[in-house]
Amino acid sequence: MRVSFDELKDAFDKALVKAGLSEDRAKLCAQLFTENQCDGVYSHGLNRFPSLMSHIASGQIDVHSEPECTKALGVVEQWDGKMGLGQVNAHVAMGRAIEVAKEHGMGCVGLSNTNHWMRAGAYGLQAADAGCIGMCWTNTTVLMPPWGAEGKRIGNNPMVMSIPRDGGHLLLDMAMSQYSNGKLEILKQRGEDLPLAGGYDSEGNLTCDPGAILDSKRALPIGYWKGSALAVMLDVLAAVISGGLSTHQIAAQGSEYAVSQTYIALDVTSLVGQGVREQIVNNVVNDLQEAGEDVRYPGAGMLRIREESLELGVVVDEGQWNDLLKMG
Amino acid sequence: MRVSFDELKDAFDKALVKAGLSEDRAKLCAQLFTENQCDGVYSHGLNRFPSLMSHIASGQIDVHSEPECTKALGVVEQWDGKMGLGQVNAHVAMGRAIEVAKEHGMGCVGLSNTNHWMRAGAYGLQAADAGCIGMCWTNTTVLMPPWGAEGKRIGNNPMVMSIPRDGGHLLLDMAMSQYSNGKLEILKQRGEDLPLAGGYDSEGNLTCDPGAILDSKRALPIGYWKGSALAVMLDVLAAVISGGLSTHQIAAQGSEYAVSQTYIALDVTSLVGQGVREQIVNNVVNDLQEAGEDVRYPGAGMLRIREESLELGVVVDEGQWNDLLKMG
After folding, report:
1. Which of A271, A288, A294 to mutate against chain B (most B CBs within 10 Å)?
2. Interface test with chain B among A226, A263, A267, A296, by most B beta carbons within 10 Å
């Protein structure tokens, strides 16, 4: 079924206010959750909302806590997320990186001690909306084996890059695993195979069977050794820039909290001017579009779903939608 | 066969001086080529040297040209490489990013109109040697199809991340193709298959046969659609930050020159102090080493080969070595 953007946002908002968030914070989180669902990122819209609510209820997330800048070195700052709302902390951190970029060309914030930011790409879009190139990444708990090992020991550490464009921003939002656990679970339920091998079975053979990968816990990093190495680098970068925990320390806590993140903004619009920026970006987009209908520039799929959602209503699972209404 | 580091460096130096480089520039390029070979990056040591020499001889590379800062916005600068030596331009650009980082925490240089920088990782090591996190990437001519297409249209756009560490820097140096053309050619000559599928054959099937991939020109991006999207983002970022050419414009020239690059340095040692930095980085390295002998942190392989090269001499191909001596 479909509901309107505003209807969905109001429902999120009511539930968040009831959970104890201030009016401003509820509004921001409701906006982000609704945009995630509207853009087709269903894994981090309605689907993830109950887990946020339960972490608020359990006290793991402190809805009143304010992130704080604890150290600055020129355009680089360290912020302590104080175990507050992951989305609020992320929005403040990218907002601060943008503010520094507007003044000095580029800004960087390392954020420690924060919670799940839901959809990574949201903060790339935040930078692009401000005319900035955005880059951000987070570490996670252990989710896959490093190349050469069998046991889970590294995160899938989603990384985002965004480039502003009047006709729709370019956005890359990708985890270092070839498929997310959520994707594997959905395909297993449907009895479908993966289109391409996504991990190993328990005998150590590459497989397209999502159930076999969930059993072995051996999801494949993108590009085998390359994605494994990139995941390690992103983890260390996030930890060292923020002064926070790295993946194996997060895993040692038993559940995923107090993660480390990095936010970078670069004011490309002031650097080259809006006209030149559009020309360079559109040049590449047009060249890709000439390659055929099946070729998409990063962000094209999101834009198509967003337009459809705004015209026809946002797709929601009926059960999840009814659950949300009950929370409000 | 093996030759000593200094012997190899002297031979590169003589050949470069004879090709018309100033004493300083010959020394820098000889040092970089020798380090590449010493670290086991044989694809960008002796192996690539003749191609540099022929580009100098043909006048594509101007050995006297000086890169120039053409625009600055706070900590972000645009430099024109003026079709000079790729290694010299890269070294100047990362050097400038480091200089800005030492003053303002972070620095970024976009470099347009430059030539092949040989080993990408060299400039990551340069940042790490200065106590900085380094990030840099380059675009290239068209080398693989974007996901969903059959014809070559995007670059393999190597990307580097480095993190300083007293016991040996962490270094990621990776192209967006699963295997380089050089690797495919070497394995084809030896009659060996790839360990994992590296592209499509002419009928559109994934294959481990390097010859079939070279014939179809359909090398596989790391992580399929993910590496394809990352390659596109790196291309646009390099072009828009430097104001230079993007991959399809480079390809339209007929041969690969006037590429665009991005250099970022972040002075992490001043940010957190050397002791804290070592502790955070070593924590992750130690955790990976516990996973078993086959698990390597990014940069571990390089360090092992470097130590062996410095102890026993640098491995050289006898034919390539004799050719180098003749050039001096």
Report:
1. A271
2. A226
Q: For the whole model, what pTM was predicted?
A: 0.97
Angle, vertex CA A263, rays to CA A85 and CA A299, nearest 5: 95
Is there a contact between A231 and A215 (Cβ–Cβ < 8 Å)? Answer: no
Among B172, B283, B287, the residue with its CB nearest the CB of A229 is B172
pLDDT digits (tens, 9 = 90+) for A15-31: 999 999 999 999 999 99
Which of B221, B233, B270 lies at the smallest CB-CB distance from A170?
B233
Instruction: Return the structure tokens found at A38.
Output: 């509207």
Under an 8 A CB cutoff, do A240 and B153 touch?
Answer: no
Nearest to A233 among B103, B267, B298 (CB): B298
The b/e string for B33-50 (b: 16+ C-beta within 10 A; e otherwise) is bbbbbbbbbbbbbbbbbe
Task: Flag whether the ipTM exceeds 0.85.
Answer: yes
How sure is the predictor about B180, in pLDDT bands with cuts at 50, 70 and 90? confident
pLDDT mean over B283-291: 95
What chain B holds in terms of domains, given with CATH numbers, is 2-177+221-274+300-327 (3.30.1370.60), 181-220 (3.30.60.50)
- Give the pLDDT mean for B67-83: 98
- Of the candidates B153, B61, B54, the residue with the CA atom closest to the CA atom of residue B114: B61
- Environment class of B263 (CB within 10 Å of its CB; exposed 0-12, middle 13-18, buried 19+): buried
Residue that has been written with the tokens 């609704």 in this structure: A34
Amino acid at B262: T
Over the stretch B30-56, which tens digit does the pLDDT of each residue have? 999 999 999 999 989 999 999 999 999
pLDDT tier for residue B181 given thresholds of 50, 70 and 90: confident
Give the catalytic positions of A in this structure: 44
Q: CB of A232 within 8 A of CB of A177?
A: no
Return the SS3 of A134: strand
DSSP-assigned states of every residue in B118-143: S-THHHHHHHHHTT-EEEEEE--S--
Chain A closest CA to B301's CA: distance in Å? 12
User: Residue A120: is it exposed, middle or buried by C-beta count within 10 angstroms (0-12/13-18/19+)?
Assistant: buried
Tokens of residue A55, six digits:
């972490």
CA gap B299, B277 in Å, rounded: 17
Alpha helices in chain A (DSSP H): 5-18, 23-38, 49-58, 86-104, 121-129, 181-190, 210-216, 225-242, 247-252, 268-272, 274-289, 300-312, 318-327
For chain A, residues with pLDDT lower than 50 are none
Instruction: Say if residues A198 and A178 touch (Cβ distance below 8 Å).
Output: yes
What CA–CA distance (Å, rounded) separates A120 from B4? 49
B109-123 pLDDT tens trace:
999 999 999 999 999
Q: To which residue do tokens 């201030």 refer?
A: A22
